[in-house]
């Protein structure tokens, strides 16, 4: 690549330019959705900057302690949550917010209400900050049905109803991956411009991958289908090469790699967590939406992940997501186990 030429490109596709181009395809559009996304992007830039300084803050005794003025320094996940809640409410486009950090849903006051519901995990994998592992923000957007009288029922809808979903990964670079229902695009933050630039247009996950990603420390608690699938990954019966194991333990990073390189990410139910560990609304749904938009699949062990209808805002579910053929394989194993038991 000619880096000198690259550095002087003048036709940069920024994330807002991309979203405005999408908006122009809908003449009836009022730009509300674009305003909402611009606030999400701003929140991600703020958190990216805070994450980069987190190690230093710890070094000089700030994070989570009281500073000399007697002001308490906020932990990064709490700070990130406040940033997103304020950014989303101030956009004037939201009506209900569901955050991983807040026990209850936030209903926006009538004077600041818009038409959109946003579900989000402000800082997924925050326990990994101290060791420099990639972490991220995950979000999903729905359109409200009853703007005048919003209730939790407006939120407890299948992932199939999502308008858009995405995540921002804070790692060696800051990467924003977004789908508004027309495929998946990846943007990378250019720190010199302060803008997200389109670097991964129209991401398509390979139909089959060579990587599986799962916490094998839980193997003794797995069900039969998961155990058999992982065994097949290591010791294929058809003479093919075994799959490689890659597990970071930060969902955004593991899913990002799976999306780009193919393969499968598994977080199954087990004896310790019979309902799985990942939260449906702001982890399983957005990532499943992105996988399907990129040509992959997402499965819960019983059904297509996006068909799930949650009963509680912090409900959990198992999930298997990734390359189409790899997920097809685990679906077949679950079907076989079910058949055996009937």
TrEMBL record:
Keywords: Carbohydrate metabolism, Cytoplasm, Hydrolase, Magnesium, Metal-binding. PANTHER family: FRUCTOSE-1,6-BISPHOSPHATASE-RELATED (PTHR11556), FRUCTOSE-BISPHOSPHATASE (PTHR11556:SF36). Belongs to the FBPase class 1 family. GO terms for biological process: fructose 1,6-bisphosphate metabolic process; fructose 6-phosphate metabolic process; fructose metabolic process; gluconeogenesis; photosynthesis; sucrose biosynthetic process. Residues 13-201 form the Fructose-1-6-bisphosphatase class I N-terminal domain. Pfam families: FBPase (PF00316), FBPase_C (PF18913). The keyword Zinc does not apply. Its EC number is 3.1.3.11. Residues 205-334 form the Fructose-1-6-bisphosphatase class 1 C-terminal domain. It is an enzyme of class 3 (hydrolase). GO terms for molecular function: fructose 1,6-bisphosphate 1-phosphatase activity; metal ion binding. InterPro entries: FBPase_C_dom (IPR044015), FBPase_class-1 (IPR000146), FBPase_N (IPR033391), FBPtase (IPR028343), Fructose_bisphosphatase_AS (IPR020548). Its cofactor is Mg(2+). GO terms for cellular component: cytosol. This is Fructose-1,6-bisphosphatase, cytosolic. It is found in: Cytoplasm. PROSITE patterns: FBPASE (PS00124). NCBIfam families: PRK09293.1-1 (NF006778), PRK09293.1-3 (NF006779). It comes from the Eukaryota. It catalyses: beta-D-fructose 1,6-bisphosphate + H2O = beta-D-fructose 6-phosphate + phosphate. Its main location: cytoplasm.
